[in-house]
Amino acid sequence: MRKPPRRRLLPGGLLCLAALATLTAGAADSDPAALPAWQVLEYEQQAFFVTARSRIEVVPDSANPQQWQLTASSAVANNSEEVVLELAADGSARHRARLSRGKSNEQRFKTYDFLPEHILRVRRDPPPGATSQPPGEWPVSARRKVAYPPGADGLPVTDAYALLLLAARFLSSPGAAADVVVNTEFNFYLVRMSRSDGGPVEASYEVAGGSPSTGKRLTRGVTLAVSPLGEQVDKPDFSLLGLGGEITILFDEQYLLPLQLRGTAPRIGPAEINLTRVTLRDPAA
């Protein structure tokens, strides 16, 4: 993939990045569980004439300020998904809703309630024929209680998208490693976060409301070592923005923006996903 020509960072971009530095420092000094300085991240990967795009947004839950709401949308070829995730301040999931679309416009809507004893999974499928019903009103086709595996006790159980938040928080902690459990469909995975060498990354992203930011950035890396936890009911299905295997997230050393993810993509092999656009959080919000 050709890299875009290098451009200078214009004054508007400098102002936006200065604001990001202030927000990042303020969050780190006040509360390690505070919302990140960014509100929206947008990523893109191109390979074999196919473009994959992902958008992640995190906002405070309007009904409960002690919880966050993460919304994510991802699309590649004829497949797409939309996820709404309710998170506690420690990153553990409380509720997840996922609408997925495949070939021939096949659709599925699934909800997951992360209860103390188990996860309640409910699948809904659209009724035959065209319908204007929202997915939450489609007929229930399956309901199942998914037991937590041994080894999950005392660890946050969450969704893979939340790892973007938890990895940045880990960088600000004194620990050498940190564990979290990720639930997919029926499977669970232990994800161990550890620090890794970052190195320079050629960044090229747009700051919403500002100017493009390009050039080499020094980074700090977090490696995600993923291993199955408990009985694997389904085939292996762990993925973060389409990447599997051992994943490294490279954060801008100064602003803690997740600039790049490195891992393994299906049918492609080693792959990188790069930040293309960021929307900063309004400090007054």
Describe the 3D structure.
The protein is mainly β. It has one domain (11-280). It has helices spanning 11-30, 163-171; strands spanning 38-47, 50-60, 67-76, 79-88, 93-101, 107-114, 118-124, 140-147, 157-158, 177-183, 188-207, 212-228, 244-252, 258-265, 269-280. The chain has a five-stranded mixed beta barrel with strand order 11-12-13-14-15. The longest helix is centred in the N-terminal third of the chain and has 20 residues, at 11-30. It is globular, with a radius of gyration of 19 Å.
Provide tags for this entry.
285 residues, 5-stranded mixed beta barrel, 10% helix, 52% strand, disordered N terminus
Following the backbone from N to C, one meets helices and strands in this order, namely HEEEEEEEEEHEEEEEE
Q: What form results from the Cα inertia axes?
A: globular
Q: Biggest sheet, strands in spatial order?
A: 11-12-13-14-15
Total count of domains: 1
- From the helix content, strand content and strand pairing, which structural class follows? mainly beta
